[in-house]
């Protein structure tokens, strides 16, 4: 072997054995994505632990009590919506009532107190939460 070949071989060995980590472009992308996911996970964990818990209350957005309608035997949300506001589309009012009461569907039971939007508080069918003991 020639001296140049031996010298070239030695220099390759020292470069490989130097202990430095060499990342390819793909490796840098993977490492960056992994670091990003890790940081996002830590931030999500911190946000979930630091967030205040939501607490339900019987009060409206301005500290007002909800108004209720007590469901009569044979009544449905459709009939309640029609009785509360005959001029409005019952479907819109039913959607509001379902969301306000967090109902799974539109079925109601007789004697159930259903919260209604505050704009219907002057309707004769509506009773206050104090009258119900809510």
TrEMBL record:
Key words, A-Z: Membrane, Transmembrane, Transmembrane helix
Segments passing through the bilayer: 29-51
A Pfam family recorded for this sequence: LysM
Record domain LysM: where: 67-116
UniProt cross-references to InterPro entries, sorted A to Z: LysM, LysM_dom_sf
Keyword set includes Oxidoreductase: no
Keyword Membrane: yes
Coiled-coil segments: none
Protein's name according to its UniProt entry: LysM domain-containing protein
Species of provenance: Leucobacter chromiiresistens
Source taxonomy: Bacteria, Bacillati, Actinomycetota, Actinomycetes, Micrococcales
